[in-house]
Design a protein that fits this description.
The complex is a heterodimer of chains A (514) and B (384).
Chain A: H1 2-24, E1 30-46, H2 47-52, E2 59-63, E3 69-78, H3 82-85, E4 86-87, E5 90-96, E6 105-107, E7 112-121, E8 128-145, E9 151-162, E10 165-173, E11 182-189, E12 194-196, E13 207-215, E14 224-226, E15 232-249, E16 254-262, E17 273-274, E18 280-287, E19 293-302, E20 305-307, E21 316-318, E22 331-336, H4 344-348, E23 354-363, E24 374-377, E25 383-391, E26 393-394, E27 396-397, E28 399-407, E29 415-425, E30 430-439, E31 447-453, E32 462-469, H5 470-474, E33 477-486, E34 491-492, E35 498-513
Antiparallel strand pairs in A: 1-35, 2-3, 3-25, 4-15, 5-15, 6-14, 7-13, 8-11, 8-12, 8-15, 9-10, 9-12, 9-13, 15-24, 16-23, 17-27, 18-22, 18-25, 19-20, 19-21, 19-23, 26-34, 28-33, 29-32, 29-35, 30-31, 30-33
Chain B: H1 2-17, E1 23-35, H2 40-48, E2 50-51, H3 54-64, E3 69-86, E4 93-108, H4 110-117, E5 128-129, E6 134-148, E7 154-177, E8 184-195, E9 199-211, E10 218-245, H5 257-262, E11 270-281, E12 285-295, E13 298-307, E14 312-323, E15 327-337, E16 339-351, E17 355-362, E18 374-383
Antiparallel strand pairs in B: 1-3, 1-18, 3-4, 4-6, 5-7, 6-7, 7-8, 7-9, 8-10, 9-10, 10-11, 10-12, 12-13, 13-14, 14-15, 15-16, 16-17, 17-18
Helix pairs in contact in B: 3-4
Classes of the chains: A mainly beta (514), B mainly beta (384).
Chain lengths: 514, 384
């Protein structure tokens, strides 16, 4: 009886456990809504933040004071010399044919059929190069043979070294069947190659010494059968050769000189006036080529408006740079941009798109005075250099800046709320800001918001609320912000001004936990 | 150690074998959960899924008030037996028990509950304190053998195998967002730990009963699961991170949009530690009960339970009465444990000399209500 009771109890418990498992394992997502409010962004832009992006290599800073002084010193344009930085492609071919008819004639292993030492001449170069270092380049080679026997090619370039090793090509072709040629092709990378261009004699220019040996390989015990109609050919194609350093005599080449310097992009700076009154503005030409130059600036214009200067049209002699030490010592020539008429900076105040300088330069105006010791390093090109100092004071009228920020869609399902944008103006100017948020999803209307910030120090925080939701966040879009600033007459900037942007979000989010 | 314990158990079991010719035993199955804030409906949605309406959250917040929120559950099966034959011609008899039990305990501050289920928007400018919020769960099986003396006083030594255990604790934590949404700070120091393999250990169970014919009352003292387990390969993930910002900058090495885009997520602020062995105390429980007869067929009793991870001791006071020859019933009031005061009722049917069956219901009115804060049932069979 007791055993029967126990059995019943066990069965009952088993049913209970199974029922708990069956109902307990069923699980669906748990969802609920939460109201969230969080700060997201707090960033600001000072003078340096705004201007730092204007030049990657120049030195720019703002010296705080009353007024603050903006200083810029750095290159604004590099002068490229294509004739010194790129070599023309050159093809060299050698073909060996027997000087007899008939055959076959046996040629034992180790026999030399051709042993030729000669210069490869680079055609189409007006300069007289004695040596160079390549940044990139390659040799594509092709060899072929119709000989019924193994043929060995050894093509050595003792004046071309890569990593300290002389360049040498060695190819062994197997016997031809008498109908089709045996061929082989390939490519040799010349990046970093140091090339002596003085040829086999050591006194030439624009020539690479080479040594070609064609024969039968002595390590293969095979006797070649050569017919009078056989042909052995090798072709070397030097191509895509760009120079890093070059030496020699660069000749008397006239080089056109033109610089279009973008100043204000119309798409970014749509309109307005900005009073620019620098106290120093010197445009320098820095000659880093170890060759004399004769520079003649013919014209200077702002958006097509010609500007005159006392030295325009007058040839300027600039002596060669000094490369005798570890660092190049450039030679300088400069012009004072404050002496232009009309004032270059009055024109810049109307936000022109481009400032154009044109002229020409003559290399080695006095001929080969250095005895073939000209030198050019592409890492140090001649540069136009600006030395500029501008006290930050003046009038600003309707100065408009447009910026666009592209957003990818964000999957934040279940969110509905708003972005809260707050602007705090630290500049002594009035701001009007208009923002437009365009969505790629055309069913979503564009969001337009405006904000106005009074001039510091009476400025208050300006707040804008932009509705956002699940659909709007999911759609890629573009936020375009157009800001216009106007000063109340001439104003001085201290250099410590800052615009602060704070972004927060507030809304309802549906949490889902599986 | 596992082999040694198994060997000891086999030795004890073979010693017991000869004593099992006649014995008394009882089996108890129980299950209960209780909270001081989570209604049955809200708890069901949290654990089984579905949409939680804001009204449920509001009523839970109202119920919790400013106290720590608590939710606990326990369920299991226990079989106790004792031999009727004396042990080696002495007064003592062999006894033993088998227990399968699962236990869980969850605590939370009102602010944590508010943050998770309501969000922070409604209480900007308030410091949300998270200290002491925790979660711990454990399941084990225990086999014990011992001796029972006069008045059913007994002591057992048991082998326990903890099959699952997990704990998480926020030692310190706070969160704050200013009313102007221009400042946020948060701090979290805590850990979550678990072991991927089972743990073994030893426990002691003991009972002492004051039963005297000359005394008009009875007193009972019980100790359950007092012991330890050794947890191998215990892994803990720790976090100790402070975030304070007025908002991210676009770029920069600190808290910026750029650095967050390049970060590896929460793994950067979590460290992991591994202990080859960790000694854990088992969640033991002490029961003390006092019974006093009011007449030949009625009486009252008081019981206090401490332990089992309960945030406060659980106290029970009740009235009992015999109904006929075979029935007995009682009503009780229960306070403490994981929840607020609630009623309980029980009934016992006995066939003298054979067996008895008892049903205990905690908060019986809550069984039909979604708004109740817990349910509990105990079913006991006694072989007399």
């Amino acid at each position: 009886m007791k055993c029967l009771d126990t059995l019943h109890l066990q069965r009952g418990l088993l049913v209970l456990v199974l029922a708990m498992l069956a109902f307990g394992c069923k699980r669906e997502s748990t969802t609920w809504t939460v109201d969230v409010a969080l700060p997201l962004i707090d960033d600001g832009w000072s003078w340096v933040d705004v201007i730092e992006g204007a030049s990657e290599s120049g030195s720019i800073d703002v010296v705080e004071g009353m007024p603050a002084v903006l200083r810029f010193e750095g290159p604004i344009a590099d002068w490229e010399i294509p004739s010194l930085s790129e070599l023309p492609d050159t093809i060299v071919t050698q073909e060996l044919t027997p000087d007899f008819t008939g055959g076959p004639f046996p040629v034992p292993p180790g026999a030399v059929l051709l042993d030729s030492e000669e210069d490869i001449v680079f055609q189409g170069i007006d300069q007289q190069f004695s040596g160079l270092v390549l940044s990139t380049g390659r040799i594509d080679y092709f060899v072929e043979s119709s000989t019924n026997g193994y043929v060995e090619f050894q093509y050595a370039f003792p004046s071309v070294t890569i990593g300290g090793e002389a360049l040498e090509l060695k190819v062994v072709l197997p016997p031809s069947d008498g109908v089709t040629f045996q061929t082989e092709s390939g490519s040799i990378d010349l990046a970093g190659a140091v090339i002596d261009l003085t040829g086999v004699s050591g006194n030439e220019i624009n020539r690479i010494a080479s040594h070609l040996i064609i024969g039968t390989p002595d390590e293969i015990p095979d006797t070649a059968q050569v017919f009078g109609t056989d042909s052995i050919r090798v072709a070397m194609h030097f191509q895509d050769m760009f120079v890093e350093q070059v030496a020699g005599y660069f000749g008397q080449e006239v080089l056109a000189f033109g610089v279009d310097q973008n100043v204000f992009q119309p798409s970014d700076f749509t309109s307005g006036f900005l009073q620019v009154q620098p106290t120093r503005a010197k445009l320098q030409f820095r000659n880093t080529v170890a060759a004399d130059l004769q520079l003649q600036l013919d014209a200077l214009s702002v958006d097509g408006i010609a500007v005159s200067h006392p030295i325009l049209g007058i040839p300027q002699q600039i002596t060669r740079a000094d490369w005798s030490g570890d660092e190049v010592q450039p030679t300088l020539w400069e012009m004072d941009l404050l002496e232009t008429a009309p004032s270059l900076f009055d024109l810049l105040g109307y936000l022109p798109e481009v400032v154009t300088t044109s002229g020409e330069a003559l290399l080695n105006p006095l001929g080969d005075v250095s005895g073939g010791q000209d030198y050019f390093n592409i890492q140090h090109p001649p540069q136009l250099y600006l030395d500029f100092e501008w006290p930050l004071e003046g009038v600003i009228e309707g100065f408009r800046i447009v910026r666009s920020i592209a957003f990818e869609g964000t999957d934040l399902a279940g969110f509905n709320g708003e972005l809260i944008l707050r602007f705090t103006n630290g500049y002594p100017v009035h701001w009007n800001v208009t923002g437009t948020w365009d969505y790629e999803d055309l069913e979503l209307g564009a969001e337009v918001f405006t904000a106005e910030a009074a001039a510091f120090p009476t400025a208050e925080v300006t707040e804008v609320r932009i509705p956002i939701g699940e659909a709007r966040l999911a759609s890629p879009g573009t936020l375009t912000i157009e800001a216009a600033m106007t000063s109340d007459g001439p104003v001085q900037f201290s250099g410590m001004e800052r615009v602060r942007l704070q972004v927060a979000c507030q809304g309802t989010y549906q949490v889902s936990v599986r | 150690m596992r082999i040694w314990m198994a060997y000891m158990f086999l030795v004890l079991a073979s010693a017991v074998q000869g004593q099992l010719d006649s014995l008394t035993w009882n089996a108890t199955a129980w299950g209960q959960y209780r909270s001081n804030a989570l209604s049955h409906e809200l708890g069901r949605l949290l654990f089984r899924g579905g949409h939680i309406d804001r009204s449920l959250v509001d009523s839970a917040q109202e119920a919790q008030g400013g106290e720590m929120g608590a939710f606990g559950y326990t369920s299991g099966l226990a079989i106790n037996w004792s031999s009727l034959r004396p042990w080696r011609d002495k007064e003592a008899r062999l006894c033993g028990s088998l227990q399968l039990k699962t236990l869980g305990d969850f605590r939370w501050t009102p602010e944590l509950f508010d943050l998770v289920l309501s969000g922070n928007s409604g209480h900007l400018g308030r410091w949300d304190v998270l200290d002491g919020s925790r979660m711990r769960m454990s399941t084990w099986i225990q086999v014990a053998v011992g001796l029972e003396g006069a008045n059913q006083n007994r002591i057992e030594l048991g082998l326990v195998h903890r099959t699952q255990s997990m704990e998480a604790l926020i030692r310190n934590g706070y969160f704050y967002v200013s009313e102007g949404l221009d400042y946020m700070t948060g701090y979290l120091r805590g850990h979550i730990g678990s072991s991927e393999v089972g743990s073994w250990g030893l426990v002691t169970n003991a009972e002492w009963h004051f039963l005297r014919e000359e005394a008009p009352f009875a007193f009972h003292l019980r100790l359950n699961n007092f012991g330890f387990v050794v947890a191998p390969d215990w892994t803990e993930l720790h976090v100790d991170t402070l975030v304070e910002t007025t908002g991210l900058t676009w770029t920069g090495p600190g808290l910026s949009v750029e650095s967050l885009m390049q970060s590896e997520g929460v793994s950067e602020v979590i460290s992991e530690s591994n202990q080859r062995f960790r000694l854990d105390m088992m969640p033991f429980r002490i029961d003390a009960s006092f019974e006093y007869p009011l007449g030949p067929r009625s009486g009252w009793d008081v019981q206090v339970q401490v332990g089992d991870w309960m945030p406060t001791p659980r106290a029970i006071a009740g009235y009992r009465r015999a109904i006929g020859k075979q029935w007995q019933a009682g009503i009780q009031i229960v306070v403490g444990g994981w929840g607020r005061p609630r009623p309980a009722a029980w009934a016992r049917w006995k066939k003298p000399g054979e067996h008895a069956l008892m049903l205990f219901l905690e908060d019986p009115f809550g069984w039909g209500s979604k708004a109740a804060y817990g349910r509990g049932i105990t079913l006991r069979y006694q072989n007399l």
